[in-house]
Amino acid sequence: MKNNHRYIESLIFSILIVALALFLSPTLKSIDDIYTDIKFNFRGKQQIDTSIVTLFFTDDDLQTLGGVNNLPNHTALIISALTNLGVKAIGINILFEEKGNNQNSERRHFISTVKSSPNVSLACYFQTIGEVTDSLSIKKENLAYSSDENDSSNYKINFTNLPLGSKLLSPYPKLILNEQIGHLNYYGKTIARNIPLLIKSNSGNIVPSFSLELMRVFLNVPKDEVTINENSIVLQSNDRKVTIPTKNGAMLINYSGSSENLLKFTVVDFLNSYFSLITGKAPKLPLNTFKNKIVLIAIDSEIQGQYLINPFNERMPKIGVQANAIDTILNNRFIYELSPWMIFLLSFILTFLIIYILLNYKVVVSFLFSLLLIAGYVALSLFLFSKNIQLPVHPILLSPLAIIFGLVYKLGIMQSGIENNSVNIIQTESETKAKIVDELNVSKSTLQDTSTESKTENNTFYDSDYDEIDFQEITKSFRGMVFSNESPLNKIVATIETVAPSTAAVLITGESGTGKELVANAIHTLSLRSDKNYVAINCATFQETLLESELFGYEKGAFTGADKQKLGLFETANLGTIFLDEISEMSETLQSKLLRVLQNNELYRVGGTAPIKIDVRIIAATNKDPHREIKAKRFREDLFYRLNTIHIQLPPLRNRKNDVPVLINRFLNKENENKLKLSTDAFNALLNYNWPGNVRQLESVIQRAVIFAKANSRNEIQTNDFPIELSSGDSIDDLETKILLSLREKKFSRNSISETAKDLGGLNRGTITEYIRGILLKELSNNDFDMEVVSTIMADTKEQKIIDSIKKKNEEYLSNIKKQINPQISIEENTKALKKKYKNLPKKYHIYLENFIISSLK
Fold it and tell me: What is residue 525's predicted lDDT score, i.e. its pLDDT?
């Protein structure tokens, strides 16, 4: 009888909670959109299909091509060029408007080009989209600004309900019958969530979405052969069938990425490359890749362009929505949602289980099991989303309500003594309450223990004894690289083994000391060129003229002292591999010459006039962010795309903590044949440090520790054998926090720096000063260089006197830095000079020093 009561009560509570969810459906839908974005970010970005290419008119392009008024002429030229290159479908996301008579010739040329190119689709836009309406009973309305009377459609509908669109805006509506148009409308407030693939216009005709129209043209499917069913749209070509699942004619967009994931080029670069091709010159862009592609033409301009936010919280041009929609269709990445009744059934089941468990089992056990159910649902929804199945957020949001209902009701039962027929009701109540309190205390203790464990679970060897680790069991090695069996390098090794046999260029990025040269050597060793020369050069160690001579060689008499001919490293590496380390340090002039070598497979010696053919595989590396360098105009974008055929990103050592013990063991064996041991404190100090210098720094620290331990006739390495930043037991971030806390406690008094240095184990006073300088630069960079805000953050108090004191000191620091900045020289030269001046500034703050230099030179 008891269990029956609990069953009924659980049923009633669950029905009440689901009824509340029905009432709050709009709010839950908004939260569900946020949860969807979280799932996108958890899944990560994917490669957008390479069949999709985007050409952008940038602000520079518009200026170069004579402004917006010349867009029709240049767009017509691009259409002709793309058609000649064998492009299957061309989409133009530019709404050309009717103008005065002065544009008649340009307009007619564009119109005639479009009409003679059946593979071209033009973008249009409905100003308003109404409610979903029965497609068989729509009556035409005469609305102002509508060009609907010109549109035309041969689509056949079997049965469907479609949204009604009005006020259709399309290119040159009075001159072009809209047989080659697709709309740009979407559903979603801040993010385009889904696209209505078909909209019914006021005239009763069907207008497809821009993405659907381009897919139809791409697959060469006539309009009258497109099958439109109640829940799907089918495109059937001779060799391929694509079925698009829909709801009221709309499709959910499965975002693969943002604009950075698109294969994109600027219009000017494309036109210049095309003119080079037709005049017999080598094009800048790989135009052969355009064949059989879908090409989208749009404006990416701060002045003319329009942008949206995608689920990855990144800004992208509106054409990116259509590109992602096309990618969804091309790769069958359709997102499948549950029906509304399934959503609420799932919510009901989960809430019922939680309440039933809470009412029938002990508080601690039932509460933890409820949390496990919720966590299981979250894990399942994340996993299924990676398989393109979307579970709603509703059960997650309703579960806390179920827990609250269940706990409150159960505590009420226990308090009133309903379940106890004992004569001594007061005593029973007291015992029951005590039991509940004990269980809740146990629950709290358990959760705290769990929380503590979660902080250390990422570091498998934390608080372990070095001597107890079975290194033979956990150590893996590959071509000079040593790592653990759980290391992220396992995936990189797999990538190396995959790409090594090819001849493709490889770009290796990663911080200094992460092993880029080892990766390059491994690629060559496993390649088909392993029996040929492998030549490596660090571009940062040579001046520009000397580096050119080293790379390309020189002819006798090319310059003073050139008394004989010299072969360059490219010729030396012919038929083999050349490794260009720190390539981002190469000057722009040399980058141009290197690009020519990559494009033409030939070079000119310094002082030479005859081209020399070569066959060399290039592997390049840099410790800088290529995209940042491109944005700063220090690295050529076209060279980056030539080198970035295969990209290998090496993780810093702080992101592969399980490799640290393996590397320590390797370096100890190398130094002293494993005669020395590590104390537990020393081992944990090495594990906890952030290693800004990566593997190279770790090796230096071990070498130093061995020397100091042997000098003191010890067979065990201790923390005092390490540099101060390790022996203090703090990582750089921990040390920054401790310094700030100490200074705040001392209210940034006159002697606070000296006292802080003393409190932190006798650190040098200059070390504290450099950290303050670094913290200042970091906070300025993160807060738009607002000194008032930064001083308030550093003070962490409302006392204006302390804030003003810090602000005054900060301004002194900045004034000293500004005095060293020379506006007559480049940012790079200033950065190099200041890094030398402030050589004791921790490396993690160097990027903020550079940001300050850039800001000061604006």
Answer: 93
Do the Cβ atoms of 167 and 139 come closer than 8 Å? no
H or E segment at 307? strand 307-309
- Which string of DSSP letters, residue by residue, matches 114-175? HHT-TTEEEEEEEEEEEEEEETTS------TT--GGGB----EESS-EEEEEEEEE-SSTTT
Output Rg (C-alpha) for the chain, integer angstroms.
34
The angle that helices 394-416 and 363-386 make with each other, rounded to 10 degrees, is 170
For residue 512, with 0-12 CB atoms within 10 Å meaning exposed, 13-18 middle and 19 or more buried, which class applies? middle
Cα–Cα distance, 90 to 53 (Å, whole number): 10
Tell me the C-alpha distance between 210 and 185, whole Å. Answer: 9
Considering the entire predicted model, what is its pTM?
Answer: 0.47
Reported in sequence order, the residue ranges of 187-285 that DSSP labels E, i.e. its strands, are 194-196, 198-200, 206-208, 227-228, 232-236, 241-245, 250-252, 263-266
Q: Annotate 390-415 with DSSP letters as a single string.
A: E--SHHHHHHHHHHHHHHHHHHHHHH
pLDDT tens, position by position, 467-507:
778 888 888 989 889 999 889 999 999 999 999 999 999 99
- List pLDDT tens digits, range 395-432: 888 888 888 877 787 776 655 544 443 333 334 334 43
Question: Residue 342 — very low, low, confident or very high, per pLDDT cuts 50/70/90?
Answer: confident
Judged against a pLDDT cut of 60, whether residue 150 lies above it is answered with: no
Q: Give the separation between CA 336 and CA 245, rounded to whole angstroms.
A: 8
- Check the CA dihedral 36-38-42-46 and report its sign: positive
